[in-house]
Design brief:
Structural class: mainly alpha
Distance between the termini: 33 Å
Helix content: 25-40%
Largest sheet: none
Mean pLDDT: 77
Length: 109
């Protein structure tokens, strides 16, 4: 269960970072949900993690923005038992961490 615990803790830490650190751009999860989806009965968050690879390979793996974006919407990377290809997205919010070009991110999203 060590690897599963690491995945869950990483996803929760990333999702709740706005609650733990002060700043003008930070907000709570309720505000994010209200701003993303205007219909109260449709507030379902799906969390995914990308890239997924063994921790020992982390130093040697170079992933492009396009690969990260595609992996985020892959059913293999979802932290819920659902297939996102069978549903519809009203909105999506992706948080990229690391040294990436904003231009590359805008092109992919």
């Amino acid at each position: 269960f060590e690897q599963l615990n690491a995945l869950v803790s990483t996803s929760i830490a990333g999702s709740t970072a706005c609650l733990r650190f002060p700043g003008q751009l930070n907000s709570d999860l309720r505000k994010i949900g209200v701003n993303l989806i205007p219909f109260p009965r449709l507030h379902f968050f799906l969390v995914s993690i990308a890239p997924l690879f063994p921790p020992k390979d982390a130093k040697f793996t170079n992933v492009k923005v396009a690969e990260l974006t595609n992996q985020c919407f892959s059913p293999d990377n979802m932290m819920a038992a659902c297939d996102p290809r069978e549903g519809k997205y009203m909105t999506a919010s992706l948080t990229y961490r690391g040294n990436m070009s904003v231009k590359d991110i805008d092109e992919q999203v």
